[in-house]
Amino acid sequence: TQLLEQSPQFLSIQEGENLTVYCNSSSVFSSLQWYRQEPGEGPVLLVTVVTGGEVKKLKRLTFQFGDARKDSSLHITAAQPGDTGLYLCAGGRGLGGGATNKLIFGTGTLLAVQP
Amino acid sequence: NAGVTQTPKFRVLKTGQSMTLLCAQDMNHEYMYWYRQDPGMGLRLIHYSVGEGTTAKGEVPDGYNVSRLKKQNFLLGLESAAPSQTSVYFCASSPRRQGPSQPQHFGDGTRLSIL
């Protein structure tokens, strides 16, 4: 059962445009992570948000965790070809013992930024 | 600074054959995970381990077995490969700490085709 739905599934834009990727769930998560994956490589963590309503910025990328901790968004300003890749959100769940390392991954958004 | 290393990188099997995928990490992480990645479905957790000698089932464990005899290694076995197991397999590791989800560090994947 896929608990995290991402939209859009594919996105092709021109360099300089802005975009937003959404990550939605009916479940509450203790934290939300965003990863970026390039072809032939594993995902790499971009950011972790833990508080409802939290906003984090990473250069041209802005991440927001929903107030109810069920959804998140990633906004990219003035996209560049180097932003091309697969973006994955991942909700944190407990493994027990207080540790929260079990992740439920979203369906992914494949972004292509054309020069 | 190797991080997480997966071997092999590519493999083609015939239906019914068996094989073992090896994952090694040099970051002294307690937790290790095996995922499979299929188009449009993100990453799905197969099995995970919270420490040497312990393993647990994830979201899609059927047809797979794992072992964690040493802290740095996590093996994924396919006893009788089926075409439905054609996928890209990722291993990941993370430290054991309290609080929000820790980042998971991924290998570069094993692309497995079952004919």
Write the layout of secondary structure elements.
The complex is a heterodimer of chains A (about 120) and B (about 120).
Chain A: E1 5-7, E2 10-14, E3 19-24, E4 32-37, E5 44-49, E6 55-58, E7 61-65, E8 71-76, E9 85-93, E10 102-105, E11 109-114
Chain B: E1 4-7, E2 10-13, E3 19-25, E4 31-37, E5 43-51, E6 54-57, E7 64-67, E8 73-78, E9 87-94, E10 105-106, E11 110-114
Parallel strand pairs in B: 2-11
Antiparallel strand pairs in B: 1-3, 3-8, 4-5, 4-9, 5-6, 7-8, 9-10, 9-11
What report would you give on this structure?
The complex is a heterodimer of chains A (115) and B (115). Chain A has 115 residues and is mostly beta strands. Chain A contains no helices and eleven strands. Chain A has a domain at 16-79: Immunoglobulin-like, CATH 2.60.40.10. Helices cover 0% and strands 52% of the residues of chain A. In chain A, the strands form two sheets. In chain A, strands 2, 4, 5, 9, 10 and 11 form a six-stranded mixed beta sheet that branches. The model of chain A has no long low-confidence stretch (mean pLDDT 90). Chain B has a single domain, classed as Immunoglobulin-like, CATH 2.60.40.10. Chain B has strands spanning 4-7, 10-13, 19-25, 31-37, 43-51, 54-57, 64-67, 73-78, 87-94, 105-106, 110-114. In chain B, strand 4 and strand 5 (43-51) form a beta hairpin. Chain B is globular, with a radius of gyration of 14 Å. The termini of chain B are far apart. The mean pLDDT of chain B is 93. The interface between A and B is medium-sized, with 31 and 28 residues.
CATH class of one domain in chain A: Mainly Beta
CATH topology of one domain in chain A: Immunoglobulin-like
Residue-averaged pLDDT of chain A, rounded?
90
The secondary-structure class of chain B comes to mainly beta
What does the largest sheet of chain A look like? Answer: 6 strands, mixed
Q: Classify the helix fraction of chain B into a percent range.
A: under 10%
Tell me the number of strands of chain A: 11
